[in-house]
Amino acid sequence: MRSRPRHRLAGPVVDRTYRDRREAGAALAALLGCHAGSTDVVVLGLARGGMPVAAEVAGRLGTPLDVLVVRKLGVPWAPEVAFGAIGPDEVVAFTAFADRLSADEIDTAVATERAELARQDARYHADHPATDLSGRIAVLIDDGLATGATARAAVEVARRRGAERTVLGVPVAAPGAADALAAVADELVCPYRPANFDAVGRFYQDFRQISDGEVHGLLS
């Protein structure tokens, strides 16, 4: 039987920014020290923005690193707004915003993102198969939590792939999304939940887009 979630939402609610994803990863690793050197832990960066954060975490903890491709489903008239997310193994997670879309709009978005997910996954795992999560602790890392849709999909993928426990780590999160994901993952680790959250990128000085090549390089 899965144990009750444990939440480590450390730090006061103050305004701050991370220099870049690497600094954010260092802050996150400090809260994940209990997993250092563990042979049953796998750190999984959510592609693409979560990978530099995850690489820093895995390096500091001395644990294996892999990538998990999840894709946001953007609203057709406002692509930056998520109405859900998809992951491998036919995982789909919707937000309440999905109720505003027609079935055709949802199907079109899902089909488009499935194609891109397959392309990314094939490239990132061209040199090695996805890490076996059976009976292991999956530490899922992203660069931030806005709606929580992609993180929810990632947790479901990890469980379908046999993870014994799911730990979701994010450097910054919208308070509402953090509360919702705390009830989904077995453990949520988040050092910063600003009351004035509006977008993940606002809490980074350097929030440039991460390329496929960078993700592949981090895995290498």
Automatic annotation (TrEMBL):
* Keywords for this protein: Glycosyltransferase, Transferase
Q: Name one GO molecular function term.
A: glycosyltransferase activity
Return the Gene3D superfamilies for the record.
3.40.50.2020, PRTase-like
- Do the record's keywords include Transferase? yes
* Domain Phosphoribosyltransferase stretches: 36-179
Q: What is this protein called?
A: Phosphoribosyltransferase
